[in-house]
Amino acid sequence: MSNKVYYAMYDDDHKCLEGAKTLVGEGVHVSDAFSPFPIHGIDPVIGVQHTRLGICAFLYGITGTMTAIFGIKYFMISDWPMIVGGKPNGTMLENLPAFIPPIFEFTVFCAAHGMALTYLLRNKTLPGMPARNPDPRTTDDRFVLEIRTAENHEMTEEKIQSLLKSTGIVELDVREIEAH
Amino acid sequence: MSAVREAQIRIPLIDGHKTYHDISVDICKPIESKASRGWYICITIAGIIALWGIGCIFYLVGTGIGTWGLNKTVNWAWDITNFVWWVGIGHAGTLISAVLLLFRQRWRMAVNRSAEAMTIFAVIMAALFPVMHMGRIWCAYWVLPLPNQFGSLWVNFNSPLLWDVFAISTYFTVSLVFWYIGLIPDFGTIRDRMTKPLAKKVYSILSFGWTGNAKAWNRFEIVSLVLAGLSTPLVFSVHSIVSTDFATSIVPGWHTTIFPPYFVSGAVFSGFAMVLTLLLIMRKVMKLENYVTVKHVEYMNIVIIVTGSIVGVAYLTELFVSWYSGVEYESYAFINRFSGDYAWAYWSMMTCNVVSPQLFWVKKWRRSLSFTFFMSFIVNIGMWFERFVIIVTSLHRDYVPSSWTWFHPTFVDIGIFIGTIGIFFTLFLLFARYFPVLALNELKSILKTSGESYKEEQWKAEGGLYRKSS
């Protein structure tokens, strides 16, 4: 069986979602979906796992909190104790109320930037990266499902094509994947 | 039909029977076509003012902050007034993008992008002032806890001024990241529409190779949500920390615990006024009337009534507590505010901030675009006076009467303040020309719940009475 990829194009997000449900119901493996905005509900249908970026943000945040606490303890308590305005500075605990604002800010700083960088890296969206959407219209008003023959060995090409056509597509693009 | 059904009472947020493609076309039009004569005129004026401001900044840095009108009694004046004013203006953007996202307010989609841009430019303007006030700006990095050869001598983490360094830098960078992450998919749309090779290349770089696949959108939504969750306490913390610059001091008129909430609501109040100033011009010039409807303006005016009323209550509470506290110095500070040498500033502030937002209770007025535009200026003038009153009237009557004095701004004070307005508008005009001014892909996601055609369909199906927004 040749190694081909089908790009089935829809002109409506709802039709695209229904199409994906029909295809998956018939046993077709849908590799990916491209759309100008998130199609709610498509992720579980085509088997996209929920992202763990939220957990990452928490870990980055807690790293920021700990760095800020230990940093401030070193600067203000251990290395060079500073007595300003009679504020108690004998121990970290006594002085903690005054340190909450910078600790909070640094937590947010680390969580937000750590998560944003992880997001860009995981998405492979970085300056200079080429666009990898199958059709320029997928960022405008078209919704595309990607089906690879290599992932659908049990189906014939004709079967896939006829199934796709039954879901109300507006265009079907078939591309050969070159063997490396 | 969309999976999300909206109540009939909600009128359309996108007028004019738009399709997904229409939204792309409408928002990309200003970027793809030539700039109008009006844009060139505006940017020339803003640019000249900006250059004048930059000239004043160079003069200040070269000569020293003695060129400001400060004296030993009034040692903080326009610089910190302008700083707080600009930071306050910056608050609306993050409030719209973060807080309203958490509250699932769909109308934010049409205003968040330009409000966030405004936030970023306003915070840059704000940050200029403390840096300039350092005098020797090449030593600005001393505010960071870096190892050095003075001991090591560290920065003072007990000081609200240092908290400000952390708050403002975090606020600026997080807002920038939030804004840019939202811009990436829209740059992708522009990239795919562009035909000119150079522009295509530039937008291709700006779009970071955005693909818009399912996993990317899945991540996008979580990143937006978590960033909104992080930015929400950030918005409140930043202006609270700015207020502690005053509240932790022992100057009568500053040493009050009401400052943090009072400053935060004042910030949102002035920020929404600035968003309205910019949006009302933008919707007219860029023909975005179908996206930024009268209803949007009305919603923002309602936020102005709420925050303006909180500010009003705060003013009166301050006044009451200064008398009720029985502290002579505190009472004097407030009596001096409303009856002393700077009473004109106090009463301007009261008129602009307390009386004028109440006019928006009248539905006709809060839905009137010209009245709103006029009021947006009034509010910002009032909020500038608020900071001026707090800062200068509290300082100019020192404990020792022989130190009593006035503050007179010099041409450098005025030049830098007006200059920052010029720089701000120059940056905003460049943004409006080259960036998508509305979050076009987010707008597409609400088209089926809030678009006019879809609303009409839904209402017909449910037997309701169709109402148009404006």
Short description:
The complex is a heterodimer of chains A (180) and B (470). By secondary structure, chain A is of the alpha+beta class. Helix content of chain A is 48%, strand content 12%.
Structure notes:
- The complex is a heterodimer of chains A (180) and B (470).
- Chain A contains five helices and four strands, in the order E-H-E-H-H-H-E-H-E.
- Chain A has helices at residues 13-25, 42-46, 53-79, 92-123, 157-165; strands spanning 4-10, 32-34, 143-148, 171-176.
- With 180 residues, chain A is α+β, with helices and mostly antiparallel strands.
- The longest helix of chain A has 32 residues, at 92-123.
- Helices cover 48% and strands 12% of the residues of chain A.
- Chain A starts with a strand and ends with a strand.
- The model of chain A has no long low-confidence stretch (mean pLDDT 86).
- In chain A, helix 3 packs antiparallel against helix 4 (92-123).
- Chain B is an all-alpha fold and 470 residues long.
- Chain B has one domain (20-137, 162-450).
- Chain B is built from 16 helices and no strands.
- The longest helix of chain B is centred in the middle third of the chain and has 34 residues, at 160-193.
- The two termini of chain B are 24 Å apart.
- The model of chain B has no long low-confidence stretch (mean pLDDT 88).
- The chains are: A alpha+beta (180), B mainly alpha (470).
- Chains A and B meet through strand 2, helix 2, helix 3 and helix 4 of A and helix 1, helix 5, helix 6, helix 7 and helix 15 of B.
